[in-house]
């Protein structure tokens, strides 16, 4: 087990492109802090801490996919968006990536902006757009929530992976020429399979939280008074 | 309400610690989707080291920091399961402390008016107040 990297390592994308994405990531995270703050109250703040810690834990658990010799692991963008919303959710994933790069040698520090762009920004944004759309059309049942979680998680993984393909096209270490299509194909197929795992984990986790504490699921809170009626403001109202 | 939330957080943290501390050593050791795609075109030996051919993974450079917990191990501990579990536990606690602490510091305090646009008021008004 000498090499257990899950994220983009140093040397894979050139310095200038990595620097550009570092600036993009930093600007996006600043926006997330500004927008996310409005939702962060005494209840969401510790929940968001838990979501980050949970994503860190589950990312460690690589699961086999149907292709021999390749594994996948949770990325977490959809889970974070469902539980704590897109702004705070993106920050949760970014904190995980930062801890992994600074403390666990996973993902180059110079590559952090690339990794944050793919997993925290693209992954969370793609998931959230789907979550909003699907929750609007699907029935307000556990099954509707499960389908929303599964589909948004699956698509977000493929979207995040294609973010890497774009970055590689812009500044990949080895010029692949026409082979970039081959890389894109490989990445898309494996991440479609990884997305199935991501979808199952995300749906299972969100359903569990929704069953025990529906008020702690951001996506359900945003659905208005019908969905959040089981949790009337009694006693604890300030 | 407040107490129940902290109870939920504590149980979630316990689950995370078990996942990172125990279940993690049963994880697949195969390279993930990204890493395996970058190795396409290369031959890899049983230990997972690139031995020949031509692929992007050959350009992988040293990490800037590394550190005692690099690659989710603990330097000095040779037992893989123990090292992975320990570094996982440290990672979960560290991530929770940094994320939770950071979010707690920037949170909107009770009764504080939002200075931003109107949509800020919506999620809190429709939800049960904790």
Kindly list the characteristics that best describe this protein.
heterodimer; A: 238 residues; mainly alpha; Arp2/3 complex 21 kDa subunit ARPC3; two-stranded antiparallel sheet; 2 strands; globular; B: 130 residues; 4 helices; 45% helix; 5% strand; disordered C terminus
Series of secondary-structure elements of chain A, N-terminal to C-terminal = HHEEHHHHHHH
CATH architecture of chain A: Orthogonal Bundle
Q: Tell me the distance between the termini of chain B.
A: 6 Å
Poorly predicted runs of chain A are 224-238
Describe the structure.
- The complex is a heterodimer of chains A (238) and B (130).
- Chain A has helices spanning 15-36, 44-59, 77-84, 86-103, 112-137, 142-171, 180-212, 218-221, 225-228, and strands at residues 63-64, 71-72.
- Chain A is mostly helical and 238 residues long.
- Chain A has a single domain (15-221), classed as Arp2/3 complex 21 kDa subunit ARPC3 (Orthogonal Bundle), CATH 1.10.1760.20.
- A two-stranded antiparallel sheet of chain A has the order 1-2.
- In chain A, helix 1 packs across helix 4, helix 3 packs across helix 4 (86-103) and helix 6 (142-171) runs antiparallel to helix 7 (180-212).
- The model of chain A is unreliable at 224-238 (pLDDT under 50).
- Helices cover 45% and strands 5% of the residues of chain B.
- Chain B has helices at residues 2-21, 33-38, 80-106, 121-126; strands at residues 42-44, 50-53.
- In chain B, strands 1-2 form a two-stranded antiparallel ribbon.
- In chain B, a hairpin with a 5-residue loop joins strand 1 and strand 2 (50-53).
- In chain B, helix 1 packs antiparallel against helix 3 (80-106).
- Residues 115-130 of chain B have low confidence and may be disordered.
- The chains are: A mainly alpha (238), B mainly alpha (130).
- The interface between A and B is large, with 97 and 87 residues.
């Amino acid at each position: 087990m000498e090499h257990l990297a899950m994220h983009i390592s140093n040397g894979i994308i050139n310095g200038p492109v990595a620097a550009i994405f570092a600036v993009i990531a930093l600007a996006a995270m600043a926006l997330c802090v500004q927008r996310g703050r409005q939702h962060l109250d005494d209840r969401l703040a510790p929940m968001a801490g838990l979501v980050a810690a949970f994503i860190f834990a589950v990312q460690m658990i690589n699961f086999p996919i149907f292709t021999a010799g390749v594994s996948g692991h949770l990325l977490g963008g959809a889970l974070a968006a469902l539980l704590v919303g897109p702004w705070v959710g993106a920050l949760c994933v970014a904190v995980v990536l930062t801890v992994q790069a600074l403390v666990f040698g996973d993902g180059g520090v110079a590559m952090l902006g690339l990794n944050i762009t793919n997993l925290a920004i693209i992954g969370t944004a793609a998931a959230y757009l789907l979550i909003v759309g699907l929750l609007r059309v699907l029935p307000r049942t556990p099954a509707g929530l499960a389908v929303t979680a599964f589909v948004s998680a699956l698509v977000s993984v493929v979207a995040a992976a294609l973010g890497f393909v774009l970055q590689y096209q812009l500044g990949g270490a080895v010029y692949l020429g026409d082979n970039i299509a081959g890389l894109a194909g490989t990445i898309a197929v494996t991440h479609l399979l990884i997305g199935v795992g991501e979808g199952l984990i995300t749906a299972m986790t969100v359903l569990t939280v929704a069953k025990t504490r529906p008020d702690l699921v951001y996506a359900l809170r945003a659905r208005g008074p019908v969905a959040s009626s089981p949790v009337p403001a009694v006693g604890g109202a300030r | 309400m407040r107490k129940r939330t902290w109870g939920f957080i504590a149980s979630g943290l316990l689950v995370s610690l078990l996942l990172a501390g125990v279940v993690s050593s049963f994880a697949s050791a195969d390279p993930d989707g990204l890493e395996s795609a970058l190795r396409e075109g290369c031959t890899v030996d049983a230990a997972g080291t690139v031995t020949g051919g031509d692929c992007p993974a050959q350009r992988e450079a040293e990490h800037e920091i590394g550190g005692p917990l690099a690659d989710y191990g603990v330097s000095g501990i040779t037992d893989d399961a123990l090292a992975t579990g320990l570094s996982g536990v440290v990672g979960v606690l560290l991530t929770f402390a940094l994320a939770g602490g950071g979010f707690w510091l920037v949170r909107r305090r009770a009764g504080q008016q939002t200075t931003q646009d109107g949509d800020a008021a919506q999620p809190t008004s429709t939800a049960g107040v904790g």
